[in-house]
Description:
The protein is of the alpha/beta class. It has helices at residues 36-48, 62-65, 116-122, 128-135, 145-162, 169-190, 192-208, 213-224, 226-246, 249-276, 281-325, 330-348, 380-399, 417-427, 443-450; strands at residues 2-11, 14-20, 24-29, 76-83, 86-93, 100-105, 110-112, 136-138, 355-358, 364-368, 371-373, 404-409, 432-439, 456-459. It has 15 helices and 14 strands. The strands form 3 sheets. A 6-stranded antiparallel beta sheet has the order 2-1-4-5-6-7, with helices on one face. The protein has a 5-stranded parallel beta sheet with strand order 8-12-13-3-14. A 3-stranded antiparallel beta sheet has the order 9-10-11. The two termini are 25 Å apart.
Amino acid sequence: xxxxxxxxxxxxxxxxxxxxxxxxxxxxxxxxxxxxxxxxxxxxxxxxxxxxxxxxxxxxxxxxxxxxxxxxxxxxxxxxxxxxxxxxxxxxxxxxxxxxxxxxxxxxxxxxxxxxxxxxxxxxxxxxxxxxxxxxxxxxxxxxxxxxxxxxxxxxxxxxxxxxxxxxxxxxxxxxxxxxxxxxxxxxxxxxxxxxxxxxxxxxxxxxxxxxxxxxxxxxxxxxxxxxxxxxxxxxxxxxxxxxxxxxxxxxxxxxxxxxxxxxxxxxxxxxxxxxxxxxxxxxxxxxxxxxxxxxxxxxxxxxxxxxxxxxxxxxxxxxxxxxxxxxxxxxxxxxxxxxxxxxxxxxxxxxxxxxxxxxxxxxxxxxxxxxxxxxxxxxxxxxxxxxxxxxxxxxxxxxxxxxxxxxxxxxxxxxxxxxxxxxxxxxxxxxxxxxxxxxxxxxxxxxxxxxxxxxxxxx
Length: 460
């Protein structure tokens, strides 16, 4: 794949700025603030798009940083690249309110229907993750070997699970995690605990509602004896009058017994009502019905939660399986990675360091004249050379025989002249379609000319 042409229609400080690249070495030269970083990030934006972040992060994200200085609604660009024997033109609108990407096959003069899969195939399996961790290198980034390890892990998992490098396992895991989060949210929405608390409260209200079997029995006694109780009352009164008139004490005793019988029937009901209040049978029935409804609802929600939990376990198993498959890159790529890294390091140092080994846990060992050297004793620039060699080796493994562009932003900022010359002279020997170097000094230009190495110069 070769990047042929860029058109920054309205991006950052540039308006209708066109840049043409060649195969081989390209030097983009400009002083500070000339726009080198803008072009470097425009390439990535054209390949993968630019997302605007939310909240406080939006103030310093890439989207905001490179918004056009004028007419920010017109935020777009164009890239032409060659791959698979065809030339393609990618056009993008970056504005968050009108985002758009179009792909046009300029060789066959037809539009290409855009989709994530077809677009990744067009880019030879290139993703934003492996682009940033292998092909694009800036002096100012803090990419670790863990990032390289993940890139290779991702690639191994792709090959083992799908036999193709065009499936992005990282995105697959991300989707699985999002689905797991969605299901857990659904479980939370069931609010089973809330239903249980409500059921407890209903049961408390039922227990507080006056309704007892002894009261019902007592009430029925009162009803059954309503006529007799008043008869006893009248009889008692009659006996009292008769006793007073006749001075017959037997009648007086009969009157007392009649009144006692009346009191024995009526008083307990009043005592019960005084202790427990008025009886509301309708409210109790409503509470009992509500209790039954809630119990049924809880049972249904428990069944739903059980099904959701099965899905969560399935997702967790899928994620674990993918991670297990991609967990050991060394057995698959160990020897090739070490061989290629050593080859590139020997080229960059003119044979001073002829061997690099990267262990299973991505620990580096460096050898000079076949003797192991403590990496902590090496200079910063030598460590950068090692890192560059490993990244390019990773790119070679990822894309196999497909030649890809390598994009370097100020790669020699900490190199002395000798290291810069050695690295520059051997960059052309890499298995790359083109090398694009961004530089703020003319040192690289002078060295290339002095060593009669052809290159394409873009001055800003």
